[in-house]
Amino acid sequence: MWNIFITSFFTFVAICIKMKLSAADDCKGCVQLDSYSFDKIIPKFKAAIVKFDVAFPYGEKHEEFAKVAFTTRDSFDLLVAEVGVKDFGNKDNSDIADRFNIKKDDYPVVLLFIQGKTEPHRFIIKKDTEFTADNIKRFIKTKSGVYLGLPGCVEKLDRLADQFKTSNDKDRQEILNKAKVFQETLPEEHRTAAKVYVKTMEKIMERGDIFVQTEQTRIEGLLKGKLSNDKKRSMEERRNILHSFTRRDEL
C-alpha cells in the first residue's frame, strides 16, 4: 500500500513538472513573472503585455498569446509575460491578480502596462474582436505606440501614418507627398500596401478623420462574409494598415 502511494505521489510530481516545462516551452519568449519579480521587471519596459492565467495554461488562447511573444521577439521595447495564478496550496500570485481585480472566471486576462502609467489597459474582447495574436498586437500598437509590424504593413509608412493622424492639413499634404515619393522606391511586393497608405491619406483629407472608422466598419463587415483565402488575407492586411491611422484614444 505504501509503495503504491509513493509511486502515485512521484508520478503526480513528474506530471506537474512536465506540465510546467511544457507550458513554458509552448510560449517561447514569454517571461514568467511572480509576486517577487513583477514590480521589478514591468517598469523597465516601454510596454509590457501580461497574460494572467491558470498555473498551467493551455488551449487556443494560450497558443495565440504565444504567437505574440514569438512574432515580437525582436522588439526590445516590449515585454511579453505571463503570471500563473494558483487557487490551491499557497495560492501563488493570487495577490497580483487581486491587485488588478482579476477573477478566475475571466482567465485568460491580458493587461497592457505602459511605462510611467499607473493603471494598465485591459484587452477586452468585443463583439467583433477575437482573442487572436494579430488583435492583441493591434491593441499593443495602438495603446502604447510601440512599433509592431503587422501583416501587410510597411514600417516607414506606418511612421508617416502616425505623424499624419496628428497633423494639420498643411502638414498632412507634405506627409502625403513623402508617402508618394517613398512608394516609388519600394520593391514590387510592397507597392500594393503602399497604395493603401496613400489612398487612405487622400480619403482622410477629402472626407475627414471619420473615414478611418467607416472604412474599418466596412472591412469588418466584409470579413464576416464568405471570402476566398486570398481576399480575406488582403482585407485583413488593409485593416492592419487602417489601424496605423487610428488614434490611441479611439480604442
Summarize it.
The chain has 251 residues and is an alpha/beta fold. Helices cover 53% and strands 11% of the residues.
What descriptors fit this protein?
alpha/beta, 5-stranded mixed beta sheet, Thioredoxin-like_sf, Endoplasmic reticulum protein erp29, Glutaredoxin, ERp29_C, signal, 251 residues, 2 domains
> What structural category do the secondary elements indicate?
alpha/beta
If you consult CATH, what is the topology of the largest domain? Glutaredoxin
Poorly predicted parts? 7-24
Distance between the termini: 60 Å
What is the radius of gyration? 22 Å
What's the CATH class label of the largest domain? Alpha Beta
- The CATH architecture of the largest domain: 3-Layer(aba) Sandwich
What is the H/E string?
HEHEHEHEEHHHHHH
User: Can you give the mean pLDDT?
Assistant: 87
- Beta strands, count: 5
Report the helical percentage. 40-55%
Shape: elongated
Can you put this structure into words, describing what you see?
About 7% of the residues have low confidence. It is elongated and about 60 Å long. It has 2 domains: 143 residues, Glutaredoxin (3-Layer(aba) Sandwich), CATH 3.40.30.10; 96 residues, Up-down Bundle (Endoplasmic reticulum protein erp29). The relative contact order is 0.10. Helices cover 53% and strands 11% of the residues. It is an alpha/beta fold. The protein has 10 helices and 5 strands, in the order H-E-H-E-H-E-H-E-E-H-H-H-H-H-H.
